[in-house]
Write the structure tokens for this entry.
Amino acid sequence: VNHFNLSFLGFGNVGRALARWLQEKRATLRDQYDLEWRITGVTSRRLGWLVNSDGFDVGRLLTGNFDSPATAPGFHEWLAASRANVMFETSSLDPQTGQPALDYIRAALKAGVNVVTANKGPVVHGYRELRELAANYGKHFRFEATVMGGAPIFSLFRETLPAANLISFRGLLNSTSNLIITEMEEGRTFDEAVKKAQDIGLAETDPSNDIDGWDASVKLAALATALMESPTTPQQVDRAGIRGLDAEQVRRARADGHPFKSVCRLERIEGRVVASVRLEQIPLTDPLASIRGASSSARFVLDTLPDGLTLISHNPGPATTAYDMLADFINIAKSD
Amino acid sequence: VNHFNLSFLGFGNVGRALARWLQEKRATLRDQYDLEWRITGVTSRRLGWLVNSDGFDVGRLLTGNFDSPATAPGFHEWLAASRANVMFETSSLDPQTGQPALDYIRAALKAGVNVVTANKGPVVHGYRELRELAANYGKHFRFEATVMGGAPIFSLFRETLPAANLISFRGLLNSTSNLIITEMEEGRTFDEAVKKAQDIGLAETDPSNDIDGWDASVKLAALATALMESPTTPQQVDRAGIRGLDAEQVRRARADGHPFKSVCRLERIEGRVVASVRLEQIPLTDPLASIRGASSSARFVLDTLPDGLTLISHNPGPATTAYDMLADFINIAKSD
């Protein structure tokens, strides 16, 4: 049996959902993957760097009871005291710099701790460095949860499409934008649609990250960086958001059979990867036309499948993102 | 470097396309996967069981030049003389029994040879036995090419969706039926549409396997058997084909926004997996409505993603099926 000490850097919606999956799948992990675990470190905005080397009671953590025998003065002491084998990183971060997650992940890998993150920032801003760091220390850096929750894109390419070359990509990567357009088609104004996205926990209080195309740009940058060996920053993405879209125009476009979509693209042009997020009207026969609400879609054109392979994640939520992290953890344990 | 001797049982469209991929990806396999290979055994309907322990010249094989230093009197001698590490099985077979492929695969595994097959028969008729045989001999039995060419379904569940439970499935699994319906929507008669499917090499001379729903039923049985731990035979599938579909009715249905589709389903009902292939009219908002021509689609509802994950393979061909076999081979080599 493989025993893993798990540390949670961040314990918000996704962190808690992950703890729930771990509980729910405990028997499966033991029986199918020969894998036992306990949570030895957790962070709380209010209480700080908490450590329990015997393992926290997960049920109590989930009800907000963070009673712990020890606290650490900072990140390094916390990670060492929790004797973590895997760190789950879901801290809040600055998408422009990837900090402070980038520093934490770097330090964890150097301390010999595998890292599973749900943050796109470190992938975009530190992919090559972190990948090499992980390889040098014989550890893993995994980030399945960062793009298209529920659709295992990175492990798909790593594990199931070996030796295939990604030629181009087209899809819908920002759930909030797609939900807003869908809500407008169904009669809401732009502002009402934004509010709906916020009410169901999809959009932030400040929704500009989503509606100005930054979230989609960061995801495109992560795909180009990790899957096309083409380091790309969000700033390099040719970006247009959906801000100011007129509800009447959106409804008419859908009725006329040419609905609006916020379409993300990666293309190889003259040896370079060109990334774009654009508001487009597409025909109803386009498979993207049927991707409604918070669902997302990705079509990958490959040298081995020239017309492409599409993945659609239907209405994913925080529990879906958390499952992506569980899958990363299991795959790390399998290859350890 | 890992050296692999490869034997091809069957060298038709798919076998030749696989040999082409192996050639084209030779440098990638060496550089990225530390993997060298040669083809030491190949079968020809005309010339029999051919062996070349130094490795055949692949270019000459592909132009139909099967000159070989040795021939074997039968399967067992052929496999032994070719000192195969992996056997690629693409022989023609009886879908009702899985023979003779089933016997060949069984013998190969017992002889310590990994097997990659494109035949559904052995999966449906021998899955548990072959899986256990492979495990007992420390070898692999892989069959990614059998269902939905281009969409890596089996490795998706094995590698990228660990600990997830498949609750239900809905999709389009028979390319020929979908192409025939699409062609009828665009003005052809049923017979003309069948002929088109035959002309592009999709349908057999006797198309009844496809249009009576047997091909889809075998694929559903393979999915239920391998992914839901529910051994299922094609005969157990509630099956209705598309034979006799009226072209005018098909066109009117598409124009009215309720196109016909041959919909495949797996559902858990009272602890049992129920499989069906049915001709249905679906709304245009259904993502399946946009799956046209030879494309296929699969939506998996999981406990970890309750609204489902969809995969679409767009217009796959023999080279796609061959790539699925290449991917199986690479994954075997990685885990060897």
User: Anything to note?
Assistant: The longest strand of chain A covers residues 35-44. Residues 124 and 222 of chain A are 5 Å apart (CA to CA). Chain A has a mean pLDDT of 95.
